[in-house]
Amino acid sequence: MSTAARTYAENQKQDQPKTTIILFSGELDKALAAFIIANGAAAYDHEVTIFFTFWGLNILRKDELMRTHKGMLEKAFGWIMPRGPKKLALSKMNFVGLGPQMIKHVMKKHNALSLPELIELAQEQGIKLVACTMTMDLLGLQQEELIDSVEYAGVAAYLGDASQGQVNLFI
């Protein structure tokens, strides 16, 4: 690539709107909203970052049980937290576990993408999925427990992205 073409490409990327989302919640309806917004922003040529912290990290967990070396408290967190996007509760209308099945049924009826499909689409669109390393330490989560293509960073990295963002959301 010529110097002029490289400079043009760099300027285009600098001019590209940026959207950041902090995904704090591990509830299905909030995760769906975050990924719908993120995928929509990416479709409109935004550079998108989703920063997963606290219960939001459960969305990135692999479905299968991973063998890890943890202390008793970290193991307890692993047992009580949902493992992956298919196991999330629906916040206000969980209805003793029936809420997630109801919303998934309605979504399928209306040909809406499921949360796992929205996550896959986000990865295909180059949305940056960032796991908060401090929260991972607090909850005893290890990198091998999370899905592939996740980046790992702390608050400073998120703030660097957010300071350049035109849209910054907390979900």
Oligomeric state as shown: single chain
Mean pLDDT: 85
How large is the radius of gyration? 17 Å
| End-to-end CA span | 40 Å
**Proportion of beta-strand residues:** 5-15%
State the secondary-structure class.
alpha/beta
Shape: globular
Adjacency order of strands in the biggest sheet: 4-3-2-1-5
Number of helices: 7
- The SSE order reads HEHEHHHEHEHE
Question: Could you explain the architecture of this structure?
Answer:
The protein is an alpha/beta fold and 171 residues long. Helix content is 44%, strand content 14%. It contains 7 helices and 5 strands; from the N terminus they run αβαβαααβαβαβ. The protein has a 5-stranded parallel sheet, with helices on both faces. α6 (133-139) links the parallel β3 (128-132) and β4 (151-153). The model has no long low-confidence stretch (mean pLDDT 85).
Question: How does the SSE layout of this entry go?
Answer:
Blueprint: H1 3-15, E1 18-23, H2 28-43, E2 47-52, H3 72-80, H4 98-109, H5 115-124, E3 128-132, H6 133-139, E4 151-153, H7 155-162, E5 167-170
Label this structure with key terms.
7 helices, alpha/beta, 5 strands, five-stranded parallel sheet, 171 residues
Give me a quick take on this structure.
This protein is α/β, with parallel strands linked by helices.
